[in-house]
Specification:
Four Helix Bundle (Hemerythrin (Met), subunit A); globular
Length: 162
């Protein structure tokens, strides 16, 4: 099947759902002190990274709607940033799910804010291990990731490993 704008948009929505699944796993059930964990001098803390991811999805939505503006947000408390993460994903996914035309190609949305967010979710997972709160490994290929499921309620893992 050749790629069409609709299949490309669907793939982008799948990437957002993947971020919700993996990001949800990275931010769920962390110790209270994790938000402020400092891995090295000058490095962002987990809550600063999560705030940046929220900014990335606010930016992604702004770009998609043709009003490309960036805003650096001061980090909120951890649970509020977690809520903001899922709310930003939900708003962006709703934009992608709509019939409204996107102001930029989906490839640009992927290569900019989405790919950056994937990197930062990986950082959160790595920082959890460094902070002594590792996540169990998982075979993400078999994970139940569904387009449109971008909130905090995600499917349970299908295949965990140590």
């Amino acid at each position: 099947m050749p790629d069409t704008p609709d299949t490309a948009r669907h793939m982008l929505r799948h990437a957002v759902a993947t971020l919700a699944y993996r990001g949800g796993k990275a931010v769920r059930d962390v110790p209270a002190e994790f938000a402020a964990f400092v891995s090295s001098t000058g490095a962002r803390t987990p809550v600063q990274i999560l705030a940046h991811v929220g900014d990335l999805f606010d930016w992604a939505l702004a770009i998609a709607e043709g009003r490309p503006t960036w805003h650096d947000s001061a980090p909120l408390p951890w649970e509020q940033e977690v809520d903001r993460f899922f709310a930003a994903l939900t708003r962006f996914d709703a934009c992608l799910a709509s019939a409204e035309p996107l102001a930029v190609p989906v490839e640009k949305l992927f290569q900019g804010p989405i790919a950056d967010a994937l990197t930062h979710v990986g950082q959160l997972a790595m920082l959890r291990r460094m902070a002594g709160a590792p996540m169990r490994g998982e075979n993400y290929f078999v994970a139940d990731i569904e387009v449109g499921r971008v909130g905090p309620d995600q499917a349970p893992p299908r295949r965990l490993f140590d």
